[in-house]
Write a structure and sequence with these properties.
This protein is of the alpha/beta class. It contains 5 helices and 5 strands. The chain has a 5-stranded parallel sheet with strand order 2-1-3-4-5, with helices on both faces. The two termini are about 20 Å apart.
């Protein structure tokens, strides 16, 4: 049976940036939006937090120690358990080549630093809505498959 999950409750956001002040700023911009927020400070920790926390959205810096944001993004998008998590790259890099590399790695959107709070909140809401619709679609497809797999009742 389908769950009535028509409203999003407490979406989970992971903020990944090696600069603690940047994490705190993004957290402050999103503080009154009703999100559950966690932070990671390097690429490896980001992968571990994604596996444990299972966020609905990842805000990801590109320039991080251990693994770059590009590498993290590629790994997450190639993993069946995390491939549908929207990734918003938040970076000081703003050259066209950097953006192309981010898109090629699988990011869903990007913002350049310094981040505008309104722009961030708008992008976050849009990506979370996209995630919610994707989840609803997946549940519906699973339900249809279950119904089609059941024997038909005699008339």
């Amino acid at each position: 049976m389908l769950d009535d999950d028509s409203r999003m409750s407490d979406p989970k956001i992971l903020i990944a940036d090696d600069n603690q002040q940047n994490c705190e700023l993004l957290d402050a911009y999103l503080a009154n939006e009703g999100y559950e927020i966690r932070m990671a400070y390097d690429g490896q920790e980001t992968l571990e937090q994604v596996a444990e926390f299972q966020p609905d959205l990842l805000l990801l810096d590109i320039m991080m120690p251990k693994l770059s944001g590009y590498e993290v993004c590629q790994q997450l998008k190639h993993d069946e358990s995390s491939k549908d998590i929207p990734i918003l790259m938040v970076t000081a890099l703003n050259e066209m080549g950097d953006m192309e590399k981010a898109v090629a790695a699988g990011c869903d959107d990007f913002l350049t630093k310094p981040v505008n709070g309104l722009e961030l909140r708008t992008s976050v809401r849009l990506l979370l809505r996209m995630r919610h619709v994707t989840n609803q679609r997946d549940r519906l497809l699973q339900y249809i498959a279950e119904v089609e797999g059941q024997p038909q009742a005699a008339s």
